[in-house]
């Protein structure tokens, strides 16, 4: 981005078998200095589809995004399901690396020195930087005042760009006209300009503010801005490079090369069968019928659904925003349910939520979003939650972090719990770029600090998802020890503790290091494949499902991986990430839940988070260190 | 504070020889959990006069304040010169430990649950908490609305207290009437109520907002709120306990016990002679004539005076705010110069700055304050700086952090560099408690994050003082490696690098680990004695001076310390502090300067901070680890 150049590179030998999180974390760890400022020139953004993404393997349209996180200060991988990813796969693009930063002609801190100099001086600088002479001339004509000339030049140089990718190549185009626009509107206009069928990745107003709670947004099936690699603030990293959108058109793409068709087809069938057999993922099953939000009632009944900034684990009103209630409303209103997030998904947990009159489609209201913007803020009304979710998608912020931020703001006195109207106003503060907006756009921990709130539910600076670790200890172990900060997807212990998938475990049992570690390894591996995390339900219970996944990988890569390689590969990815974090200054003291959860009892279970530090340290303890010099075939994929 | 109780304790055997920083850091390290939230119930504030403080040893009226810092997340010792400290010494109070937190009757997060309950329910809670029945009754009469009843009760419970200490004992009094008042006004009223001669320690409006840039304020010789243990946010820690002021009256105090009068008198004479002989500290010498601000011209000429948020090391306009210019103005206006910060100081570097007509005495404008609020913000006008300094003192914030915060805000676009009026308005935002104020009150790093500024001059979250580490490397080594965050007083390499005190060193030479380490040890030891840091100039050059200090310590303690013990004692204090930080999650990655200083060349020297990480790690490297089990007489003092 500093040179406004686009270059293609062959995939290095070492990276041939990598994909998704395996590839993003490997590139970030080897190319980004762990001690760099996340918004400074040395950070990078890496986007990579999974290994099988772009094929017709079921539910495999995930994209991973990596970089150093402005929210956690550590390495970050966030992923999303979107046709954008499949298009990259079909174009045989293994990764996009966005590096460099549009250089300011005149650093802001030299204003007062420069404005004392002559216009000639400014022109000299401009010339030295090889700027377009005509632009300078126009600037001079338009601006009599030297100071505004400087500002004008700076703004031009800092303008936002769009990376357009087709089968014929890639180029950077001016995208300044979409700056400071909501993403729903911007995506509509981008589709008008570049075609209905293009895939779009973009960052919103919040990222332009360089807020630490900003995601990368991807198009949904209808082209809307509703699919997010949301967590960890990578949106701001992309915006700080000067890149606002990536538009991809896969017309005439060669498709994913498959080295062993037989293995691939066999694997695809096994996985499809498993997904269609398992109760959680089958057609008419829990996810298909009610979406992820089916968890509201389940987790509430387990007394683990955090209410009002993690001050209770249960509230009877929660059922008003359950997946069951929502599915009924969607049917009444004429929304869509079920619905895939990308072509070829057979789980189809998604949906299109609409207003009571059927207007203003939002996209999906996920369990995490419903919880964060709902019960965690004392809000038990789906229409309010829908509007809050729409505002998050439009601004380009992560709903989990946003809901936690609003809840902390409520605890800090900016609103009463339950006041949905005020919650919406708070999000509008971000849109307006007010000082309050600048606080909120930086997430829950930042907001808590601004307001003097000591009860802040974060790990490594990232806010907790929708499961109370005091009532469900294993997920707390994952929150504490994931290299990503508090992240349920990094090792979804809920599956075993609550749903009985992959075995059973008492939620209140504190010995959860093994469970969390195994799940963290499995997830890291899965995040590399491009398969949706929800395939995990089926493959944890049905051995042929996992075999199927491995066979499709062998099909695409021409390798001979076995199911036994999966945890090893996952471990290697985690260790690469932990090494980065260590070099960035993380220690075991960062693998802890917030202090208040160890002191405050959570009603109605009246439990504290009583997992000993030693148990937490066992998850990635020294005895779990990776093998030196991984053997052939055991590199991360 | 949770029980509103005051208890006296005998000094434990182990702590008999400790004082000042040696005592505060020892207590904090042994009683405060390193992983606690700085504003939560488990943090403590410890105040301790130095070992000789309260005697007539020259320039020995320092007080140390310790706790876990909300700014750095590590241990903090900040100190000030004030008669308050001497009064504690004369009352034979070795330390004040403020612990516990006023418990809220109803946690904020239970509002919405509670307001759905009956008044009876609220009364039950109140009864359970043993609150004053009459108060509850009054509350009920005054408030028809249940919600405001809850709020009213909470406010009463959260009200601020005042700790009054006399020779007859100590008690906690209601101090709510001084809440949300400026400190100049509050100190006037407190003197009216408790007497002209009392010593006062207090925290301001900014601390009530629980901002991370908030200091503990002590009275100057005229009783004004101008002497600060400013750095690291301990003001918010005190406010979050519920304590607003400590008022001490030493009438009838027994005085400091001196175990060996002969040693004490001999030491006092040697130190006095050294101070009166050395060019920096003697009557009519640099500090006495011009105060600390004498450094403006010296450091500017060395091209190490940071300008406009550390974007240059020199600006010819700096001389307008030099100590020489200021001394002349003070004389013209009828201010006071020289002036001691506490009775018995023979250096007398202080002063009383006034407006052009002689009104509105501010107190001293120190070099650090003048620089931070002046050149670092592009402001070169003493009257503007005086007003900014007065506002900081009145709000209860540290001037170094405040000046850096304003400069970062200017870089982030909240004001133009040089705009003094706007800078004053920004401080007023804090007074008003606006969202902008809530950002600014949390310091430079927080403000930079809110505004998306990547050039933030902080170490461990604490902003840099008035010396450019790219032009003067040794002070950069201290900034990076001090357990306190960026702190010039922890190891004042400027003495050697610029002033030729304690030897000579080329400012651009990068081998500065030994210099910084030796100075950090010497300083930590000195901070335990109660002597002003400025005695260091004399004792570094005149061996009898250091002998004198050690003899006065032996005089008070009845020990037989020698000058060789001084670095060992200093090392032990530093190691206690570093152990705390390690347990709080600090690593060598925290012992680094900000990234931009390694990338950006500083005009006019065009130097980067090129001290290798290995040199930084040598300062407190493993080979420098403290002896196990310190021998008798070698404990920190």
Automatic annotation (TrEMBL), chains A, B:
SUPFAM superfamilies: Aldehyde ferredoxin oxidoreductase, C-terminal domains, Aldehyde ferredoxin oxidoreductase, N-terminal domain. Residues 314-332 have a biased composition (Basic and acidic residues). GO terms for molecular function: 4 iron, 4 sulfur cluster binding; electron transfer activity; metal ion binding; oxidoreductase activity, acting on the aldehyde or oxo group of donors, iron-sulfur protein as acceptor. Residues 1-252 form the Aldehyde ferredoxin oxidoreductase N-terminal domain. Residues 309-335, 604-637 are annotated as: Disordered. Pfam families: AFOR_C, AFOR_N. Its cofactor is tungstopterin; [4Fe-4S] cluster. Keywords: 4Fe-4S, Iron, Iron-sulfur, Metal-binding, Oxidoreductase. Belongs to the AOR/FOR family. This is Aldehyde:ferredoxin oxidoreductase. The lineage of its organism: Archaea, Methanobacteriati, Methanobacteriota, candidate division MSBL1.
